[in-house]
Write a sequence for this structure.
């Protein structure tokens, strides 16, 4: 299981409140997409789920147990920029993820354990469509293929939670469509709980079983750091078929163009 629970979670830096009053229950196997204006704490939220940051107050639980305050193999992450090792082959990139998890002191497996890990890495590459590229280096891959490799790295240890930080933002539209199909496939096959940040509203509504909108409902012009963002919309999508993006959200999340200066 991989149920994620937040109880009155806040994140502050000194006097600056970034996130406040986060209360949320995400059941195992949900695909949660996260949208919101730039700077409203979406990445900070993901970093708390990963364990790179800890809540300033409140509880963050995984299956009823406080989340470990450091990244671990039960949580995988894929960034917008391809987080792969350029000096390793495609297969060795995935193999390293297994070795670091299973032999954290040496970062290397030997004998039968290494052979089993190589077989597991090869199977994961086949699952993401990179089996034919196992001996290539990342520089010889396209952007979409490098992101497939990053997804393979994150999934090979069978994490309970997969975190995606704008993973398709740097890809061309045609490649993005292929990646959407891939991420749906691996999500359904693995049953992993997914949290994905995106600035693309149609993408959020097409992929997610649930959309969270982060925003700052309280603003004090005299003390702009006094209030943080929270979850202002929690929109369930599972079982509803294709859902159009609400016009209100489009208005709220579309940047307003500045008026031209007058002489």
């Amino acid at each position: 299981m991989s149920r994620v629970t937040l109880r009155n979670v806040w994140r502050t830096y000194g006097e600056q409140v970034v996130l406040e009053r986060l209360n949320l229950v995400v059941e195992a196997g949900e695909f949660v997409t996260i949208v919101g204006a730039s700077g409203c704490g979406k990445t900070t939220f993901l970093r708390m789920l990963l364990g790179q940051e800890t809540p300033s107050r409140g509880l963050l639980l995984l299956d009823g147990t406080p989340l470990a305050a450091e990244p671990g193999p039960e949580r995988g992450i894929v960034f917008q920029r391809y987080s792969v090792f350029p000096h390793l082959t495609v297969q060795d990139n995935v193999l390293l993820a297994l070795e670091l998890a299973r032999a954290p002191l040496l970062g290397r497996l030997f004998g039968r354990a290494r052979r089993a890990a190589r077989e597991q890495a090869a199977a994961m590459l086949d699952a993401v469509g990179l089996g034919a590229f196992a001996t290539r280096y990342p520089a010889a891959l396209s952007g979409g293929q490098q992101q497939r490799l990053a997804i393979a790295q994150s999934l090979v240890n069978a994490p309970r939670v997969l975190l995606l930080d704008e993973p398709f933002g740097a890809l061309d539209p045609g490649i993005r469509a292929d990646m959407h199909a891939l991420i749906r496939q691996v999500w359904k096959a693995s049953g992993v709980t997914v949290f994905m940040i995106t600035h693309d509203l149609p993408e959020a509504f097409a992929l997610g079983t649930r959309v969270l909108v982060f925003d700052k409902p309280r603003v004090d012009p005299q003390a702009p750091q006094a209030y943080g963002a929270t979850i202002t919309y929690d929109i369930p999508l599972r079982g509803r078929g294709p859902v159009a993006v609400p016009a209100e959200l489009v208005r709220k999340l579309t940047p307003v163009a500045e008026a031209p200066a007058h002489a």
About this structure: The domain at 1-43+59-73+174-181+201-257 is CATH 3.40.50.300 (Rossmann fold). The helical segments are 42-50, 90-102, 111-127, 143-155, 173-190, 201-207, 247-253.
